[in-house]
Amino acid sequence: MRRYVFVMGTLAWLTACSGSGATDSAVCQDVVSRYCESEECPQVADKLLPGEGCAASLLERTGCGAEDFAFSTPTRERMLECRTPFVQATTSTGRPPSCADAAGFIEACPDVAAFFRGEPPPP
């Protein structure tokens, strides 16, 4: 029974907001939500230039607040890859990622960071 619970829990974690049921809009909004929960971290406070209201600013800048949002650059797969540090500790929002994870997101994914800043991807 414990093995079943472990396997099912692991499976749920791996598919959270990444399966075919999650729209591109939902994936993007999840990343925005998790990132903005860490905005108190000095390493990330202004790295994405969130302005007034972190989530509202990033959703408007990227367009991912719209139901019909679809990834192009970065791709959905790239966004999910970059989202990994945010979901390692927990699959639910409401618990901010560590400052190290949020800073790692910016450093490891300059193309995704540029997307959130409204800039073209780096060469």
UniProtKB/TrEMBL annotation:
User: Where would one find the signal peptide in this protein?
Assistant: 1-22
**Which top-rank group of organisms is this from?**
Bacteria
Q: Does the keyword Signal apply?
A: yes
Q: PROSITE patterns in the record, alphabetically?
A: PROKAR_LIPOPROTEIN
Q: Which UniProt keywords apply?
A: Signal
The identity of this protein, by name, is Lipoprotein
The organism encoding this protein is: Myxococcus stipitatus (strain DSM 14675 / JCM 12634 / Mx s8)
